[in-house]
Amino acid sequence: MTHHTPTNSTTTRLAVLEHAVAQGARRERRWRWAFMVTAGGLGLAALSAATDVTRIDAIRTHQLEVLNANGQVVMSIGSDQGGGRLDLWSPQGANLARLASNDHGGDLALWNETGGAAAGVWATEDGGNIAAWTAAGGRAATIAAGQNGGTVSLGLSMEEVSVSLKGGNEAGLDVRDASGIDRTT
Question: Contact 90/96 with Cβ under 8 angstroms?
């Protein structure tokens, strides 16, 4: 003889139906999640196969800083009122070089470890200048282009020029000793 457990009570039948619906909902969520992960993975695989991920055509930013292993800024690429600007620093924090622009073109400045001017090249209204400074801070050598030609000046500073060679309309050579006496021969 077989005895069946009566399942015709409304409460029992409702519990069985709720359990079946909950199982179906969980199964559907798992399938939906699996489908989205698979579709996303296939999409990324297709995208990476279609592009060169080792090359970026452009990076846009207002300021880019490069840090050394100690976290110090050693290079900065950015802009100022004149345009683009590149600065280089020593590990000790001294600004050693700057490539920038001025009202007439480019401007390259080099400084020594203590912050004193060492050399420079810059555009001017009449052409350009190249200069070198002494460790004491005096401009010792200058090559400059002007409206009347070029000039080469040597001395301890721009105020104490010992030798000046001018070309163009004002061509000439001027040699002076430390006391300012003309030694042109």
Answer: yes
